[in-house]
Amino acid sequence: MITWGEAAMQPGDMNVEEAKGLIYRSLIIWLVVMALVSLGFWIG
C-alpha cells in the first residue's frame, strides 16, 4: 500500500510520525466537512 507521503516524495524523505500527522489531519478535516454537511441538511 502506497501512502500519500511516498506518492508525493521519494520514500524516506518523510518519517512515519509526519506521515501519520498528515493522515490524521486529513481524516479530521474530512470528518468536520461531513459533520457540517449533515448539519446543513438538518438545518435546511
Can you describe this structure?
With 44 residues, the protein is an all-alpha fold. It has one domain. The chain is 75% helix and 0% strand. It is built from 2 helices and no strands. The chain has helices at 4-8, 16-43. The N and C termini lie far apart (40 Å).
Computed Rg: 15 Å
> What percentage of residues falls in helices of 4 or more residues?
over 70%
Number of domains: 1
Strand content: under 5%
Q: What sequence of helices (H) and strands (E) makes up the elements?
A: HH
Main β-sheet, in a few words? none
Roughly what is the average pLDDT, rounded to an integer?
A: 80
Structural class per helix/strand content?
A: mainly alpha
Oligomer: single chain
What is the tally of beta strands? Answer: 0
List segments where confidence is low: pLDDT < 50 over at least 5 consecutive residues: none
How far is the first residue's CA from the last residue's CA?
A: 40 Å
Number of helices: 2
* Molecular shape: rod-shaped
Topology:
Layout: H1 4-8, H2 16-43
Task: Provide tags for this entry.
44 residues, 75% helix, mainly alpha, 2 helices
Compact summary:
This protein has 44 residues and is an all-alpha fold. Helices cover 75% and strands 0% of the residues.
